Fold:
Amino acid sequence: MTGDMLRLMLASHHDLLLTLYETVHRPDSWRTFLDQVCAGINVRSAVVQRLRTGGPTLQTTWLAFDSYSEEYAAQHAPVVNDVMNPRLQAEYDLPPQAIGQVAIACDEDLPMPAHVRRRFQDDLGDVGLGKGIFAGTDIAPAEGFSLVLHRHPGEKADYSSRERAFLTDLIPHLSQAIVLSDKLNRTVRQSAAMQQVLDRARPALIICDPQARLLWSNRAAQQVLTSSDSLKVIAGRVSCKRHDRTAALHALIHRTCLQGEDETLDQRCLVVDDHGFNPMHVMVMLLPKTEDDGEDQVALFLTQTGAAFDIPARLLEKLFRLSPAEARLAKAIVEGGAVNTYALAQGLAEGTVRFQIKQVLAKTGCPRQSDLVRLVCSTMMSQFGQ
Structure:
C-alpha cells in the first residue's frame, strides 16, 4: 500500500465506522460498508462471514458481501463458501483464541499441506480473486466471524503491517456492530412475538404518555377506538366523547404518573361513559421503567360491559368433557341465552333442554347456572379472542 493510499484510508476511517454502525439498524448498509473497505485498502473483494465451530468443518451461518462479491456470488461460492474450502476445515484452523481476541492470517499461516494451498489459490484465481487475508474474532463460545479480503487477480504482494494494523483496529468495531445487531434483532423478534400475543388477548390495552398521547395499542383496543363513541384518539391523544370525561381521564393519567402504585384500584379506575346500560371502564397503571427510559408511560385497560363474549363450543367440549350438544347448550347459557329461546332455536322440547342442563351442571360440578357462568369465565380461554 502506498503512503497516499494509506492517508486516504485513514481519512475515510471515520465515514467507514459511521457506515458500519449504521448496519445495526439498516442491514442493507453492509454492502456500502464493505464497498468502502474495498476502496480504502484497494482490494477486489470484502466479505463478512459468521461461523460456528465445533465440528470437522466451520459452518457458515451468515454472509454479507460487497457489490462485486454479491454480483459474482454464484461463481465464488463453490470456492470460498463450500465446505471443501480448506479455510473452513477445522484441521487447518488456527489455534483457539479467547473471545474478543483478534486473529489475522493469510493462507500461508494455516497449517494446510502445500499442495492443498496451491490448488486453492489456483481455484481463487479461476474465479477472479487474488491473494486473501482474513481477520476475525470469537463473539461467543463456538461462534465467531471473519472479514475476508481478496486482492485483485494476479496481485500476489503480501499484506503490509499497516494493512494488518488497520484490520486489527477495525475488527473490534465490527464485533461490536454484530453484537449490537444481534441484540436489536432479538428485541425486534421479542416485540413482534409479544405483539402477536397481546393481539390475541381479549382485554383492550393502550399505552400512552403522561399527556395521554397514544404510543401503542393491541388489536382489541384498536377495535374499540374505531368502533366506540365513548373513546377516540383526537389530535393524537386518547380522549372521550364528553369533555368532562376527557378532563377526568387526562387528570387520572397525570396523577397516576405522579403517584404510581400508591393509589388503590378504585382510585385508578374511571367510568368513561355512564350514560346507558353498557358503560366503558378504564383502569390506569403506571408501567415500570429503567434509569435509561425517558418520560413515564401508562397502560390503559379497557372493558366494555355487555360486550359480545363468543366462546367456542368445541373448547367447552374439550375442557369439561361435554358432548357436542351439551357444549352448545353451555355456550348458550354462558352467553346469556334463555332455556325457551335455546329450545326453540334448536327444535328441542324445553324438558329435553332442562335435562341437558342438569347433565352439564353435573359434569362441571356446578350447583347452579350462575356457577357455570363463573366457572367458564374464569378459564384461560375467556381471556383470548378467536
